[in-house]
Amino acid sequence: MKMKKIAFISFLLLQFISNHTFAQMTPIGSWQSHFSYNTAFTIELIGDKVYSASTHLRSCSLTDHSFETYSKVNGLSDVGIKLIRYDLATDYMIIIYNNSNIDLMQGNNFYNMPDIKNLNITGSKKINSVFFKNNKMYLSTDFGIVVLDPIKKEIKETYVLQLNAQILNISGLSTAGGYFYAATSAGIFKANESNPILQNFANWNLIDPHACNFIFNHKEKLYATTPDSLFKIENDQLVGLYQSESPILNTRSGQHDFYLCESDDNVRAIKIFSESGILIDSAEAINPRDVVETSSNEIWESDFWDGLVKLSNRKNKELIRPNGIFSNATYNLAIQNNDLYAIAGGENGWIYTYNGDGFSKYSNGNWTTFNRTVGTSSMDTILDVMDVVVDPRNNYIYAATFQSGLLELHPDNTSVVYKNTPYIQAQIGDNSYRLAGLVMDSEHNLWMSNYGAPDQLVVKKADGSWQKFAFPYSVSEKTASQIVIDNANQKWMVAPRGVGIYVLNDNNSIDNKNDDKIKFLRTGAGYGNLPSNEVNCIAKDLNGKLWVGTGDGIAIFNCAENIMDQNGCDAELKIVKYDLNAGLLFQRENVRTIAIDGANNKWIGTNNGVWLISDDAEKIMQRFNVDNSPLPSNEINKIAVHPITGDVYFATNAGLVSYRGNATEGRNDNDDMLVFPNPVPSQYSGNIAISGLVANADVRITDAAGQLVYRTKAQGGQATWNGLNYTGKRPRTGVFYVFVTNTDGSESKAGKFIFNE
């Protein structure tokens, strides 16, 4: 009997297995960060690598310019880096965040020290600079000097300097001649390094009342700066050396010279000074925030506009930038033709923002940017992009902008801009052409919402002709944003700013206005039954139900197609019980975005992070926030799920990250079945995925002897196995077989993979 079973398996394998090597894919449950490299605030040199940072940290090889990135995905504890500095004596780099959190980095190992961030004091906890001395890190903060021991990972002591009962802000610390010199809000104070009681302010003496923002030692000479001047400190007296034309944002001492970073709206430069404090050169055409010297004739700078910049001969500018998203400003996401579009946005409180960042396309692991900055000349006049749709017939990209009308961008980079037409109209009382949402229907008609215009819904038909529709607003501001088309081809348009939802049924005759029906939905039984008129988003699930996210939870339209019937279709305000508490679905949460995955589960984004709930909303399946995941912020702007890969993209107010989810869209057949990773590494502890399946397929895994090891049902088009058998143990090394079939057995497939114990 056993031999017959093996023979049967072999027969199936001959029938169904094609011999090819599967590409390695991202493991289920893993995260990726997608942060911009176009801005940097701080920089440091360690060996043959330059590190720069803004939202996240990255390193660049001086020799081949290869990059490594670090974020909450792979070691960092936070986002928003203010300062990085390396201590050669201890071999630790300190990473200081804007919120005063601290990471210590040694090699690729990280250690978090949140002591100052979590400090319970009144007033500012801001960390301004760090100074290294005797294997200690001296942190200058707004409440004193904090001495950190990186080797023991502890705070040793704190020096609080007070003058006239006021705590002094410490901007910097340095040493010279056996004395500490502290730059404070009340001037420069001096104390003997060997004094054991530096906590006592009486041991600090004022030498000069200038409020300096930087103080440093270069070649055993002490210097200090105010926001616009450089001084040398001689015999405890400040001697003026240089007055800048713009604010001094940073100072840096190198092996050869020292440097001042200056920047405002008119003058931006790095000023180079000899060891005697003489201005000898200037690097311009940059917008510097920090600088590091790599050799006598080469410096690298962190640039507000350009990210990491190499200046050979300290003048010749070279941008060092890997492929990446253009901007961390990600307002909206759209998946079109299996590509992700990250859209920078253009409204704040429904006022346009003059944002020229445009949008970025993510395809096959590479980013392509579309805006006026990177040479998309057809976008020279385009600001405030809000949404993107791609026409699959010709790959035309349509971009809705909140100021410049509709952009039609062709594959050859030519374009058409539509505004000031009889159809796309300016906002009443304004000259801006505010489009907020786009959707293309099954007949390739492009629908767009025209915020504030006399006619709020516009369509560019598949034949190139146009039509427009007005809704009976009872308020002066005719708001309009997202559009969703239900299974009856009715257009649901969000009317933000507390208005509600408008629904149009054009009776599938766009040009015949006589048979149109319009419905206005808001709070109250019989009127739509929304939990709040502050509507943020609508999502259509795989069963055709519409899920509406509002400022006070979620409403579900189970009969959206019948919304125009005499009896209407009020939303269901579902009561759920999560943990021990029962209540309306996401009541008191500002639900900003809803996305549907391939198993019809719902991803919910709010101001408090992300939830994944089951298709019927009865169960919380996952919960992500900044404390338990690599999310850079709890404020979620948009969520999008890739139907093929299962990647879930989270656009936050601090940048874009993605998570490889369990569910994908079901296929028509199992021909593209893929097992990954394959082979399964011996130390691998994540989920093994079987993807490319028909929806909700039955999946069975057996060992080489034909014994059933695991059985499950696919989540949409993908099944997962945690690598443990029914006894909870990891199987031994060997070949394992996968058998997949749909409900009626018409779509079957077999495959194999190698499992290393």
Please, could you describe this protein's structure?
The chain is mostly beta strands. Among the domains are: 2-27 and 666-755, Immunoglobulin-like; 345-353 and 368-619, 7 Propeller (Methylamine Dehydrogenase, Chain H), CATH 2.130.10.10. 2% of the residues lie in helices and 46% in strands. It is built from one helix and 66 strands. The strands form 18 sheets. It has a four-stranded antiparallel β-sheet with strand order 1-59-58-57, with no helix packed on it. A four-stranded antiparallel β-sheet has the order 2-3-4-5, with no helix packed on it. The two termini are 28 Å apart. Residues 1-24 have low confidence and may be disordered.
Under CATH, the topology of the domain at 345-353 and 368-619 can be stated as Methylamine Dehydrogenase, Chain H
Strand content: over 45%
What percent of the residues sit in helical stretches (DSSP H or I)? under 10%
| Main pleated-sheet profile | 4 strands, antiparallel
Radius of gyration: 30 Å
With strands numbered from the N-terminus, the spatial order across the biggest sheet is 1-59-58-57
Instruction: Output the CATH homologous superfamily of the domain at 345-353 and 368-619.
Output: YVTN repeat-like/Quinoprotein amine dehydrogenase
Beta strands, count: 66
Structural class: mainly beta
Overall spatial form: globular
Mean pLDDT, to the nearest integer, reads: 93
Uncertain spans: 1-24
Number of H- or I-type helical stretches: 1
CATH architecture of the domain at 345-353 and 368-619: 7 Propeller
CATH class of the domain at 345-353 and 368-619: Mainly Beta
Gap between N and C termini, in Å?
28 Å
